Amino acid sequence: MKFPVLAFLLLFAGSAHAQVSASIGASPAELKALATRTLVVELPEPNQRVIAEFPAKTADAKKAAYENSLAAYREQIEPAIRKYWTYNKEIEFKTTSEVIELFKEKNPKYVALIKVVLADGGGAYAYSFGLGVPALVLTATDGASKVNKNGQMTLTNWDFQAYLATTPTNYGREDYSEASMKFTLVEAQKLLEWNTAAGNKRSENFIKYAKDQSEKNCAKLASKKLLMAKQDLSKKMSPADAIDSYGRNLEVVDPSELESAYMNGDADKAVLFSVPVGVGIGTSVFVEVTNLIYMRVAVDPSTDKILACIPVSEPPGITKTEMTILKRCK
Fold first, then answer.
1. pLDDT computed for residue 132 by the predictor
2. What is the DSSP letter of 267?
3. Can you list the positions of beta strands (E) in 148-202?
4. Which residues are CB-neighbours of 117 under 8 A, at least 6 positions away?
5. Distance CA 112, CA 92 (A)
6. What does the pLDDT look like over 187-243, one tens digit per residue?
7. Which of 100, 218, 227, 116 is nearest to 166 (CA)?
8. Which of 100-109, 141-150, 173-182, 204-213 bottoms out in mean pLDDT, i.e. has the lowest?
9. Which one of 141, 182, 259, 316 is least enclosed by Cβ atoms within 10 Å?
10. Residues in a beta bridge with 226
11. Residue 58 and residue 35: Cα distance in Å, rounded?
């Protein structure tokens, strides 16, 4: 099966389309069947062959970013799965190399939850790092896969994917927290349940799901104080500008305050998460630039329901135009 791709355009002095997989590979019935398997959660290890190919000028910085990203992910994924994952009854945790062996054996017992990069061109690469969208793939270990010369597992026809809510920093380092991991895992399971509901003929992706939920729940946003992280704003828009665009029912806060409201289940608030869904590749005057493109998702902390979304938000941050999308939802 070929995966349709979702194209995003980033505007610089020059620009190019970058495409990543957006669709769900398994049918609703196949997704439902995955719940009966034992979930094996990958605990990713650094891949020395990937590290060896980093450009010499930035090798040390990229190596640190790569290893710190995996460490941040490992710190959060196991406790979050134990606390928030209910789709599978039986759960095990294995290192990347152990998970790869299950795929080599075509083991029919497991469905694997793997940290991947959704790369330009539509592929999903595990045991990797670099230019692409950080995501989770849920797929049967007796499915199609192969391991390339760098020890990267290349997945084809994978069953399900969920975008990882993360905050990339210098050299692509990814930061994770309990709040961002809870949001990722809870919404992934809601997407699974939405797809496996009785009567669904085909599986739809997270962007389609978020839009559907936004249309159904949009009216509920008006009664809530919307919290937005300062770092998500465009440099051209101040917190005061954002409030002018949206209204006084908006607070621009530090990420820790937003995450605290989410984890506390505050029923009088909504929080805006940034979810990377695409890659924009362009050129500034002198150099090629690569940036993640985001979907902004407003969620009710007390119910985990999606109340509103900005489907595509291009760098460098949320603009006045995008604020009006949220304002219309009210």
1. 85
2. T
3. 153-155, 160-163, 167-168, 174-175
4. 124, 125, 128, 129, 130, 131, 132, 133, 134, 135
5. 10
6. 999 999 999 997 788 999 999 999 999 999 999 999 999 999 999 999 999 999 999
7. 116
8. 141-150
9. 316
10. 250, 270
11. 42
